[in-house]
Amino acid sequence: MTAQFPPPVPDAGDRLLSHDELEAALRDIGARRYHNLHPFHRLLHDGKLSKDQVRAWALNRYYYQAMIPVKDAAVLARLPDAQLRRIWRQRIVDHDGDHEGDGGIERWLKLAEGVGFTRDYVLSTKGILSATRFSVDAYVHFVSERSLLEAIASSLTEMFSPTIISERVAGMLKNYDFITKETLAYFDKRLTQAPRDADFALDYVKQHARTPEQQRAAMAALTFKCNVLWTQLDALYFSYVAPGMIPPDAWQPGEGLVAEGSPAVKPGAFSGSDVPRLPRGVRLRFDEVRNKHVLLAPERTFDLDDNAVAVLKLVDGSSSVSQIARTLGQTYDADPAVIEADIVVMLADLAQKRVLER
Ligand SMILES: O=C(O)c1cc(C(=O)O)c2c(n1)C(=O)C(=O)c1cc(C(=O)O)[nH]c1-2
């Protein structure tokens, strides 16, 4: 299968382009090279992929998502004034969130879990294709090594992403019965974040590309970035569609998945006789400013709801889960068995976040 490329626009030569001409030239690069044109995306959006092929996409793209804030931190480190840094740092907040359980990376993990992966397998990045890694790492190196203008211009693919995102979400919801709106929630926020980011970057490039050479460098940076996105899909196509040659060590269908039909209780759930305790360095504290309890862990703080606070106040390193449930049953005049069923799930969740152990 070959991708359809519209014919290139005539070369502008060596002269300095007006802002409008520069924007048109940048948009033309997207029209010819953006990854919406890649055969893998056409198959993905049209419902032509198997569940395992969709899984391969979700897993590999996790690496891109996870490295985007690393890339943005590299750009941020090079920005010379506070006003620019204030604007750019929002990108890092968008992806990392500003508390546990928030942000784009977390939402992509939910997407990967939604198609069947265990969180730990995705986080390990074990099954990622080497070609995905090479492409994404090349993007991070590019923004660290090239001029600031080129680094910012390379993010301009985001000018084209709202269209592909709308098409993708509509197509996947229509064509795959295993895809839900919740699974694709990652993309909701991108529809407002991407145009905001792209507007800023486009304005920056127009203002700072002041010579024909600089304008050509900005265009080359955008072309490079289109290739970063395109080659990731080439690798997916080659490995999981045709000829379907999965490289050694890359994800094999069946690996890293939650067992079908397994109970909703998370792995590592506690039993009644387990004695939960806070790991070294983790403390339950009352935050006077916010007037609520939090769990303080090294370099992290976890907000807690009232139920978690009630349970954690009883986690003393000697009471078992059943004893804690009995105490809470007396306090709240409730059935200890019902409470125990609830708190084993809560404790497993905290254990997964590494703020509780047994
Ligand atoms: O779904 C997509 O097709 C798509 C494309 C792009 C892009 O064009 O680079 C980004 C994203 N998504 C995205 O979610 C995202 O966070 C993002 C950050 C960047 C960047 O270069 O800084 N591109 C993109």
What's the average pLDDT?
89
**Low-confidence parts lasting 5 or more residues at pLDDT below 50?**
263-267
Distance from first to last alpha carbon: 54 Å
Bin the strand percentage.
Answer: under 5%
Based on secondary structure, the structural category is mainly alpha
CATH superfamily annotation of the largest domain:
Heme oxygenase-like
CATH class category name of the largest domain: Mainly Alpha
Shape category: globular
Largest sheet: 3 strands, antiparallel
SSE blueprint:
Elements: H1 19-33, H2 39-45, H3 51-76, H4 82-96, H5 104-114, H6 119-124, H7 130-145, H8 148-153, H9 161-175, H10 186-208, H11 212-240, E1 283-287, E2 292-297, E3 300-303, H12 306-312, H13 321-332, H14 336-352
Antiparallel strand pairs: 1-2, 2-3
Helix pairs in contact: 1-11, 3-4, 3-5, 3-7, 3-11, 7-11, 9-10, 13-14
Bound molecules: pyrroloquinoline quinone (PQQ).
